[in-house]
Amino acid sequence: MAGVSVQFLGSGDAFGSGGRFQTCIHVQTDGARFLIDCGASSLTAMKQRGVDPAAIDAILVTHLHGDHFGGIPFFILDAQFSRRTRPLLLAGPPGVERRVREAMEVLFPGSSQTQQRFPVTFLELADGEETAIGTLTVAGHAVVHASGAPAYALRVGCAGRVIAYSGDTEWTDALVRAAAGADLFICEAYSFAKQIRFHLDHATLMQHCAALGCRRLVLTHMGPEMLAQLAAARAECAADGMVIDL
To answer: For position 1, what pLDDT does the model report?
Structure first.
């Protein structure tokens, strides 16, 4: 069975707490390289870690907040100037193409209408449905996070392994469906004990931990309160650059 390498290019929140980059998870198998989320700082994080953007086949987006998809306009413009020819697939919740094109136009006027040198395909994921994307299978599970469009936890099958990611959400049983049997479940823990609407805290997550049914749990998207309590965390915590081999 082929191996799967997972690297946290960004494990931070929207505000760069702890000097961390925004959410961006790089996954590499023998048959595919893809990103799960691509926050606004992600292109810088990729280049700092020596990850070649031109080798990325797909970007899977959990929801349409800038710290999760805001790096895509920079990624596409960089690819255009570097003469990329490899096709790029962008998959996410309903509205992903419109929001990406709007962001491109705001950040780089005219860029949303530019004909790229490489094919760019958008794919909207349907809640609860598994979709084949090349050698991957991807399912979105609707979670509780206001972003002007549906927000998903993602469940990705690749090279015989399953990686799940909560995205941003308060507790919902959809996380149990996304994480069930996963080899790796990456889960938001924005705060340690303080409950913040639309986000998960460590204390609440630990109350439900036994129900998740995943083989390995790693916390990410940590804000100041959570970062100050890392020593008390009851689960593994991500850091920028961290690599997990499955």
So the answer is: 43
**Distance (Å, whole) CA 73 – CA 162:** 28
Span 232-241, mean pLDDT? 98
Superfamily holding 5-236: Ribonuclease Z/Hydroxyacylglutathione hydrolase-like (3.60.15.10)
Q: Half-sphere exposure (CA, 13 Å, Cβ side) for 244?
A: 22
First-last CA distance in the chain: 10
Name every residue whose Cβ is closer than 8 Å to that of residue 26 and which is 6 or more positions away in sequence.
6, 7, 9, 33, 34, 35, 46, 49, 51
Is residue 244 within 8 A of residue 6, CB to CB? The reply is yes
pLDDT in tens, 185-220: 999 999 999 999 999 999 999 999 999 999 999 999
Q: What is the distance between the alpha carbons of residues 202 and 64, in angstroms, rounded to a whole number?
A: 23
Domain ranges for the chain = 5-236
Taking the model in full, what pTM does it have?
0.97
Question: Among residues 190, 187, 179, which one has the least CA distance to residue 156?
Answer: 179
Task: Give tens-digit pLDDT for 27-82.
Answer: 999 989 999 999 999 999 999 999 999 999 999 999 999 999 999 999 999 999 99
Distance between CA atoms of residues 206 and 123, nearest Å: 34
CB 107 within 8 A of CB 61: no
Q: What angle is formed at CA 191 by the lines to CA 189 and CA 193, rounded to 5 degrees?
A: 110
Q: Which two tokens stand for residue 23?
A: 């959410």
